[in-house]
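Feature request disguised as a bug report, sorry. It would help if multi-protein outputs had a clear separator. Right now it looks like this:
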Amino acid sequence: MSSTFQNPTAATKFLQTMRVLDSMNASSADLDKGIKLLGYTCSLLTVFLSPLGRDTMSSPTSLTKGLFSMHNNMSIARYALRIVNGMPSSIKAAVDGSWEYGDLDDYEHLLDEEKRSDGSATKKNITASPVASLAEKSLPYSMLGYYPLEALAYFGWMAPGMLYDEKPPTCHINASPLTKLWTYIRDKENHANTNLVSAASCCFWLWYIIADIIVQSDRVKRLTAAINELESSSNDSKEKDEMLVNLNEQLTDSKIMLTRECFFLLPGVHWSLPNWDKKPLLPRWLLTSLMFGEAVTGFAHSYMKKDRAMLGK
């Protein structure tokens, strides 16, 4: 028997880790994070295994070529997952507001008497700013633009004939705007190819990134102020302690989400440019490092939340 299972503590930790990972596989969002982490680990290895100062894929070895192929295959798998899961969750969020955080729990009654007499600051902490509220409401709508265009790019990469013809198609002068747009996309001579469709989808993704940075920055500011107010209160009730635990957990989550979006920001700009494939904004080592950093942060965040929930903490 291995030493891992001879040690009850190690065995318990190992089994808990397996339970958490199994639980994460039941969520499409968490499954995507796992595949993304594996993919960008492969991509980052191609950077480290290439000679310093040289484009990592200019003269690939059999190892780096294989690792990069694995990264590409995992990226394509993630496209397919989002085709199935992306639109339904976005439409649902646009209809019922399920992506919105809402106000913080009202904690004014837990403050000292003199602070309760003027609750304007407290109410400001509880409610999101108008700009953050608008940004939050826009999140699902950005994805309603992102997912269809991304799916179109996916089909273009997998079945190129869907997006362009070898011979430019013709379009009647009185055709509808949608027909004219589709004809333009399919015209290879216009260079409106799959990569340009992908860039258009990433413009909507960049919208999401910027909006979420606004949302999470506002939440970090309000949660920090609320925690400071509560900690300065002489109230020593159990309700106050539970409120502080809850607010601190929310603050940690928002800080991690903000970190993830900051990792995403430059790649979002990079892939939103129409010539990202021919004249990339970022060198591949930087692009890969940023995406790997986000992948590690996102996966670790999901793991910690699942672990916390399963342990009842």
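(second protein starts here, but nothing in the output says so)
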Amino acid sequence: MSNYTYNDHYISAPPGSIAPYIGGGTTTSGTNPGDPDGWVICDGQQRTVSDGRFATLAAILNTYMGVSTNTSNSIIPPDLKTQFIRGCDSAATTAKATGGSATITLSATHLPAHSHSIHIGDGGHSHSCTVGVVDDKNFSGVSGQLPPADSANALNFYNDTVAAGTGITASTSNAGSGAAITIVPPFVTMNYIMKY
């Protein structure tokens, strides 16, 4: 993590650079445990020194965060624990934007258009009935009275069929519980560190 030269050119990561880091730090006591030399772990915890080493990074952090609380001897790096880093667009105001969620709860608006089929086993049907009527066609009617039956007491039978509908309605039952689902892709955890 130290500076070096290549083809007589001095190579160094600029202050404010962030990199993934899986190693342990060289500082094991005091206010900056676990930080590798020249870097601080991005854990959102305050770092305090007395030799002014944070001067350049403090100015960068103050501009980035829109604050004036970082000084040459005291800084608070961004907290990148459990976070992904996403490149910003050309607008400077989006440089410190945050967002996203580890889970999502789906609703009907998230689903593609689709349909459901239902089957009704008892649809419209019909009934037949047979009615017997006394044959009085051989007799003249009398006002105010029922005509008597003919001498043979014959009955004529008429069949009639009446269509009927059941008025059945149907609906489908709800399925699912609406529980949130994770949308975190496969990952490996490690620290992010920032150069000062």
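Even a blank line would do. Unrelated, but nice: The first strand starts at residue 4 and ends at 6.
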